[in-house]
Amino acid sequence: MTIQPQEKIRVAVIGTGPGGLAAIIHLLRVPFVELSAFDQATELREVGAGISINQNTWRHLHLLGAANAIEQISARGDGTKVDHEQRNGLTGELIAQSFQKVEINAPPRSRIERYKLQNALLGQVPKGFVQLSKELSKIEESSKGTDLTFEDGTTAGPFDLLIGADGIRSAVRKHAFPDHRLSYTGKVAYRVIIPQSKVAHIKGIPKAATFWHTKDTHVYTDPLDNGLFEIATRASEPEEDIKKVSWGQKVKPEQVQHHYDHYCETIKQVIAAPDEWLEFAMFGGPRLESVISNGHIALLGDASHPLSGAFGSGAAFAFEDAYVLAQALLYTHKNGESVSQAIRLYDEVRSPHYKGLYQILNNFASNAKEIEAISPPLIENDFINERTRRNWNAENKWIYEYDVTKVWKQYIDTIDAGKDLTKLSLQKNKEAETAIVPVIPVSA
Ligand SMILES: Cc1cc2nc3c(=O)[nH]c(=O)nc-3n(C[C@H](O)[C@H](O)[C@H](O)COP(=O)(O)OP(=O)(O)OC[C@H]3O[C@@H](n4cnc5c(N)ncnc54)[C@H](O)[C@@H]3O)c2cc1C
Q1: Across 106-110, 327-331, 372-376, 420-424, least confident range
Q2: pLDDT of the residue at 8
Q3: Which keywords accompany this UniProt record (predicted)?
Q4: Could you report the per-residue pLDDT of 316-372, keeping only the tens digit for each?
Q5: Is there an atom of ligand 1 within 6 Å of 46 CB?
Q6: Which of 65, 268, 295, 420 is 20 to 30 A distant from 16 in Cα terms?
C-alpha cells in the first residue's frame, strides 16, 4: 500500500517494556502516525534488579528525552577507575580489567535499578496512553490491515503496521514465524540488590563490576555508586527442577547457595548475604532471518532477537530498533513509499546487527571447543582463564559503542546515492539496486 502524504498510518505497539516504550516515544513525535499501544500487564512496573547503561544506551536515552530523569551516578573519572574485571570464580584470580572511558561524548557506563529506566521512559509517555490488561491472543491479517483480539475478548484494528515489542516470548513472533522455536536454555539467573553494608565485612570484593567465571556458570558483583550492591548469577538447572515460566519469582537463599559451593571464599560469602533472591528461567532461540513479516509486522527488542539476555545490553538493542523503525517510517513517508518499504529498510539495517551478535555467540562456542581440544587437556582453572581471555577481549567492545544513528545515515546515504545515479541514468536499474550495501557495524 502506498501512503498519500495526507493519510495517517495506523500503528499498534504490543508490549511496553523498554523497546515498546521507546517505539511509542519516537512514534508519538511522528505527525502522520496514529498510534495505539497495548500491554498485558495490569500496571506498568519493572521486576528485576540492575541494568547496565552503556554508551549506546545513553545515546538513545538522550534521543528519547529520558536521560535527565536518570541520575548519572557514575561520575566521570580520569580514566584510572577500573570499570570491569573478569576473574576466575574458583580462585578469585584476576584475568582481565578494563578502565572507565574519559571521552566527553561517551558517558561512563552506569548500573542502575531497572525501575529507574522504566520510570524515565514512562515520563515521556502521556498518562493512560498505554491500554493495560490487553493480552494479545489473536492476529488476523487481511487486505484492510491487521486486526487484534485480546484475551478479554476485546478487539482493535485494523492497523497498517503491527509492532511486536512483546519480549522474549513474543506472541507476535509466534504468529509471524510459527516454526520458530524458543526453548529453556538450562540456565537460571538469580539476581538481587542489597545494601552494601550487608557485604562490607567480606574480603576481596573489587570496587569494579566483576564477572567471576567458572566452567558452566558465573557470578556478577557490582558495588553501585548509591550504597547498594548488586549480585547477578547464572546457574545450571535441568528443566524438571525449574518451573518453565518462572520469571522474577522470589526464592529462598537455600535454593541459590548450593550452586556456588565450589566458588572462592569471597563469592561464597557474597552469595550467603541476601535473605531473598529473584529467579529468572532463561529462554532463547535461533536467530530469525528477518525481523519483519508480510509487509506490515515488525518485531522489535527481545521479540526480534531471542538472545536470552546475552551481552547485557538488550534494552539498548531495543532502543536501536525503535530508532531505526521510526526513521524508516519518516524516510519512506517523505518519499511517498509504503509501510512495507519502511519495514524492509528496518530489516536491512537491524537483521545484520543481530547476525553479528549471534556470530559472537558462535565464536564463544568455537572458543570453548578449541580449548577443550587442547592436548594435554587444560586443568579447570586454566580452561576458565583461557576461555575468559578469548571471549572477553576488546573485539566485542563495538556492541556497546555501536552508533545506529550513524549506521542509519550511512545506509540512507547509500540508497539516495543509488537513486541519484538512477535519475542520471548513469547506471542500469539493476546496478542501482545493488548499491544498497549490507550494513557493517561502525563504532561511535
Ligand atoms: C537476566 C537478565 C539480565 C539482563 N541485563 C541487562 C542489562 O544489564 N542491560 C540491558 O540493556 N539489558 C539487559 N537485559 C535484557 C533486557 O532486560 C531486555 O533485553 C529488555 O527488557 C527487552 O525489552 P523489550 O521491551 O524488548 O521486552 P520486555 O522488557 O520483555 O517487555 C515486553 C513487554 O511485552 C508485554 N507482553 C508480553 N506478551 C504480551 C502479550 N501477549 N500481549 C500484550 N503484552 C505482552 C510484557 O508485559 C512486557 O511489558 C537482561 C535480561 C535478562 C534476562
Answers
A1: 420-424
A2: 92
A3: FAD, Flavoprotein, Oxidoreductase
A4: 999 999 999 999 999 999 999 999 999 999 999 999 999 998 888 888 888 889 998
A5: no
A6: 295
Displacement of CA 247 from its chain's centroid (Å): 17
| Residue type at 324 in one-letter notation | V
Side-chain half-sphere of 408: how many Cα atoms within 13 Å? 20
Backbone angles phi, psi at 227, to 5 degrees: 85, 0
pLDDT computed for residue 55 by the predictor: 83
Helix or strand or coil: residue 175?
helix
Beta bridge partners of 211: 86, 220
Give the DSSP letter of residue 437.
Answer: P
**Nearest atom within ligand 1 for CA of residue 168:** 30
Give yes or no for residue 318 CB within 6 A of ligand 1.
yes
Domains and CATH numbers, the chain: 9-74+109-181+286-392 (3.50.50.60), 183-284 (3.30.9.30)
Calculated CA dihedral for residues 415, 354, 85, 109, nearest 10 degrees: 50
Query: Using one digit for the tens of pLDDT, what is the confidence trace for 230-289?
Result: 999 999 988 766 666 667 889 999 999 999 999 999 999 999 999 999 998 888 899 999
324 phi, psi to nearest 5 deg: -65, -40
Residue (of 82, 83, 101, 57) closest to 402 by Cα position: 57
Report DSSP letters for 6-54, one per residue: TPPEEEEEE--SHHHHHHHHHHHT-TTEEEEEE-S-SS----SSEEEE-
Phi and psi for 132 in degrees, rounded to 5?
Answer: -95, 170
81 — pLDDT class (breaks 50, 70, 90):
confident
CA of 16 to the centre of ligand 1 (A): 9
Q: Choose among 21, 8, 50: nearest CA to 225.
A: 50
Cα–Cα distances (Å) from 151 to 39, 41, 108, 387, in that order, read 11, 12, 43, 46
> How close is the Cα of 217 to the center of ligand 1, in Å?
22
Candidates 246, 222, 219, 256; CA nearest to 113 is: 222
Answer with the residue of higher pLDDT: 49 or 362. 362
The predicted structure's pLDDT at residue 231: 96
Show the CA angle centred on residue 284, arms to residues 318 and 273, nearest 5°: 85
CA 264/CA 212 separation, integer angstroms: 9
* Cβ 55 under 6 angstroms from ligand 1: no
